[in-house]
Amino acid sequence: AQKVTQAQTEISVVEKEDVTLDCVYETRDTTYYLFWYKQPPSGELVFLIRRNSFDEQNEISGRYSWNFQKSTSSFNFTITASQVVDSAVYFCALSSLDTGRRALTFGSGTRLQVQP
Amino acid sequence: DAGVIQSPRHEVTEMGQEVTLRCKPISGHNSLFWYRQTMMRGLELLIYFNNNVPIDDSGMPEDRFSAKMPNASFSTLKIQPSEPRDSAVYFCASSSSGGELEETQYFGPGTRLLVL
Questions:
Q1: Three-class SS string for A13-62?
Q2: Surface-to-core class of residue A43, CB atoms within 10 Å of its CB (0-12 exposed, 13-18 middle, 19+ buried)
Q3: Which of B4, B46, B103 is the best substitution to test chain A (most A C-beta atoms within 10 A)?
Q4: Which of A104, B2, B81, B111 has the most CB atoms lying inside 10 A of its own CB?
Q5: What element of type H or E holds B46?
Q6: How many CB atoms lie within 10 A of CB B68?
Q7: pLDDT tens for the 116 residues of chain B, in order
Q8: Is B56 exposed, middle or buried (0-12, 13-18, 19+ CB in 10 A)?
Q9: Residue pLDDT, tens place only, A28-82
Q10: How far apart are CA A91 and CA A111, in angstroms?
Q11: In whole angstroms, what is the distance from residue B17 CA to residue B29 CA?
């Protein structure tokens, strides 16, 4: 069975602070994808980043960066210099290709509040 | 390019009535997913199709729920009869199995269903 855990229920920061959202996953599969999605107050789910299980290279894309570590089964997401528009619920998700379970298993989400 | 299209965006109905939700995936995508989001259970898969064929319907709550994908550009999720506990946001998502962003699911805006 697959599982995604986001231990942080809610985080509040002041604008321009950096913030890291934690994600820990469980899977027995060797080929899988990890994702981060953003759900702003308007309710849509917006794709942010994707990583496959064979690529542990960490990257930066604008104000976003991520740290994927297979050894600890973690896929953390950092927003640098946060802005009020970053306020949203952020979901970490996992899909597997080994078992054909290509549907996403979501974490429970972390609500980020960025105060001006 | 048009994203995933869902209709209606909002639906209010009375218990016992039939509800039909509709989804048009992104052109060229060969997988389509239906998810439900509730406060209690978070985001969970209902069913997914690959090349118009249902692959995993283990998340469909019961016989009151049914889904079809008659062609590559259209899917429906039907609830008959509806019950108050079906109140939720229903998301449709699509993905492709090839290309640079293979397996990345793009979500529609969701249908907010309220069953009175």
A1: EECCCCEEECCEEECCCCCEEEEEEEECCCCCCEEEEEEECCCCCCCEEC
A2: middle
A3: B103
A4: A104
A5: strand B42-50
A6: 14
A7: 689 999 999 999 999 999 999 999 999 999 999 999 999 999 999 999 999 999 989 899 888 999 999 999 999 999 999 999 999 999 999 999 877 677 899 999 999 999 99
A8: middle
A9: 988 899 999 999 999 999 999 999 888 877 777 899 999 999 999 999 999 999 9
A10: 9
A11: 32
The pair of structure tokens assigned to B57 is: 């319907």
- Minimal CA–CA distance to B26: which of A47, A74, A79? A47
B101 touches chain A (CB under 8 A): yes
Distance from C-alpha of B102 to C-alpha of B30, rounded to nearest angstrom = 11
CA distance A83 to A67: 21
All residues at 6 or more sequence positions from B95 whose CB lies less than 8 Å from its CB, including other chains: A102, B29, B30, B31, B33, B102, B103, B104, B105, B106
Query: How many Cβ atoms from other residues are within 10 Å of residue A5's Cβ?
Result: 14
Cross-chain CB nearest to A91 (options B33, B43, B50):
B43
Tokens matching residue B54:
């249902």
In three-state secondary structure terms, B86 is: helix
Q: Which of B44, B95, B110 sits opposite A43 (nearest CB)?
A: B110
How far is CA B18 from each of CA A13, B64, B65, B82, B111, rounded to the nearest angstrom? 44, 9, 10, 6, 15
Query: Which residues 34-53 of B have a C-beta within 8 angstroms of A?
Result: 35, 42-45, 48, 50
